[in-house]
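Researcher: For the annotation table, I need structure tokens for Metallophosphoesterase. Please keep the output clean. Sequence:
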Amino acid sequence: MVRRRVGHTGPMARQAPSPHRPRRPVRSVLRALLRPGPAPAGPERAPHPWARALGMTAVVLVGAWLGLLIVGNVRTPVGPMDTTMTLRPSLTGGTKINVSPLGALRLDSHVAPLRLDVDVDRLDPARSQALVDNPERFSGLQDQVAADVLDGTTGLALRSCVAVVTGATALGLAVYRRPRRALAAGGLALALLAASATSAAATWNPKSVLEPKFDGLLTSAPSVVGNARSIVTEFDVYQKELARLVTNVTKLYDATSTLPAYAPDPDTLRVLHVSDIHLNPAAWHIIRSMVEQYRIDVIIDSGDTMDHGSAAENGFLDAIPGLGAPYVWVRGNHDSRTTQEYLSRMKNVHVLDDGRAVTVAGVRIAGSGDPQFTPDRTVVAQGDPAERMTGIRLASALRDQERAGTPVDIAVAHNPAAAAETDGTVPLVLAGHIHQRKNEVMKHGTRLKIEGSTGGGGLRAVQNEKPEKVRASVLYLDRGNRRLQAWDEVTLGGLGLTTAEVSRHVVEPPPPAPAPPATSSSPSP
């Protein structure tokens, strides 16, 4: 039997919902809710203004979010890395750096309803190899990264503006079916983005990089390398501890009764020989402590104070005038002409090159800079032949000083190959370069002293299995003839090790000249 429902007919009649009849789509509901104009006939009423405003807000937020999600990202290189930068809605803001598959780190860089996501996609092999092959590019890497980040964020800002406007406008047009309403939604989305950017700029915190939060496998990073603030703090403690050890060991050394017989006279000239600092800031604390404890008259640096010789490294040299003694310096193969020019303008610093000689604290010193600058891979290194030629020219300058009546007491060259060519022209020649301490009297009587690394190989030495030791020497010269009488070798523990050792060496007196043979007054048969 078929049953029919009998009821009223006409416009007010209601039809029972059929189980097979689809419901009204959400878009139609929103459009009906937000459609302006006169109230429809019947019991349905126009939506409340607050409801319309809430609906418009929902359209703007959802549309802007969809726009950012779909097209609001920028792929940009940052140094040797390829990255993707994206803006994401967030309640707290900040920056998230994703390093797949290791995890992520978060920075409280700003407070805004937007978070900056940076995905490290890969390390570009070509750009990475270029850095390895040309270490001089590291000097400009910081500027390059800063420029890359600026270009990336600028591009991201423009793309995000287009994304939020397009997303909100498209969704507004789909919901309202009216261009004016759609354009209003796009304008509101752009205003919201501008307000968020203003909030981020006002709350920008550059120090947030010192306190990152790690996720994933990177959670072990603080325990392995320490956060930036603890590294700075602990390194400062380390270098001050080394300076304190130098002081204590020196006092103990002076007090013990088991020293060699040599006791330096208070008027003895004292020269501190350092070399191959390689940008290690701890070296300045150690040198300053030794100058005070040993009452140093002059410091001689046989080169490689820098790593890449770039202008960006020059600020590292600003500690030299405050070391407490005149500073004599020759260029090493890691020191550029830019480094040399910067040092030559400093007060109380004497730069020696091309055999130039100066008298400092009563000691006549001459030296030549290294002819090669090895960080510059555009020039083919000439090796030991170039070093020996520099030594030959230095020896010629030393002979010229002798003929002029101003003989040189100490010659300085960075490379031992150059220093060896001065044999017979000067009593003492100093060198570095090989990061090993050596001492020998050469064939024609010149003593060659090679110093180890006063910077413990520099900060690059942390890559070594065992830290390289910090080495420097105190030379005692007779004030009358400026000849070497004795020297102390100071050896400190490398990066992270607080040990100190001082050993004294006394120059053996030359053997007495053989007596002339006795002559007989009687005639020979």
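Researcher: And a one-line annotation?
Model: Confidence is low (pLDDT under 50) at residues 1-22, 36-42, 220-228, 519-525.
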